[in-house]
Write a structure and sequence with these properties.
Layout (H helix, E strand, L loop, with lengths): L4 H27 L6 H25 L2 H22 L7 H20 L3 H4 L2 H16 L6 H18 L18 H26 L14 H17 L8 H29 L14 H23 L2
Helix pairs in contact: 1-2, 2-3, 3-4, 3-7, 4-6, 4-7, 6-7, 7-11, 8-9, 8-10, 8-11, 9-10, 10-11
Amino acid sequence: MKLDHELLWLLGGIVGLLALSSTITFFLKRRAAGTPNAVVANLEARVNAWWVMVAIFGVALATGGLGSVILFGLVSFFALREFITLTPTRPADHRTLFWAFFIVTPLQYYLVATHWYGLFSILIPVYAFIFVPTRSALAGDSEHFLERTAKIQWALMVCVFCVSHVPALLMLQIPGYEGQNAKLLLFFVLVVQISDVLQYVWGKLFGRHKIAPAISPSKTVEGFIGGVLSASAIGSALWWVTPFNWWQAGLFSLLLTLMGFCGGLVMSAIKRDRGVKDYGTLIEGHGGVMDRIDSLCFAAPVFFHLVRYYFTV
């Protein structure tokens, strides 16, 4: 997939923003020299982790559609592992889980890579939905059967089906936008992730009223409103890398920020139910893979299907 000038400008802006963040972190660390500061240490870990993630994402884009499919396929695999580990099943489900990890997940991404939309859109919500409980029932263990199968089905839907819609953006055939879908994918990820960051920042600066303190104590009404509006404004300003005009980009950005908030809140509810702070520890300063993609999960399928319905041939 060719890196055009607009994509290079966008990637350069992201790198510049990270460089600024690293510089700020460096001076904060020097200012706090000799005094342990958990906030600065956490900020440094997060910035370093973002450098790694942006580098990996950049390599995936540079290698074209296949690289992006492989990247998000691995993301789904590790997210699925975290989700299943957090919501344990029984030995009778091991063969079902084998199918989930090593058959259904690769097949879903194969369908994305080959642009087989018809089967890609129903493989997990229809065929895997039927297969999972049937395979588990054949194991002969009925204890907590509904709970066990629901965990696996939910894991496949959230970690594989929803996430696979991110690289699936590359399969969309948008008139006048041929060969530029990498920018649409980057636009999507950028708006959702910036919304998360800005909701946190606005919440720290002006947050007073908690939205769901028992689920996500850091989320406030002020942070939500400030983050959603500012991220939507940034998305509207980035209309030039999308097939949308400025107000369409703004509306899509607003939708992405709202769906991202819903995804993050639901994934936080699952963590609270299991009594943990993070899904994992794979990414230093960020928790697990699922902690980084929770906002993408709900936003990706909604964005994909709306763009496909209104902008493709």
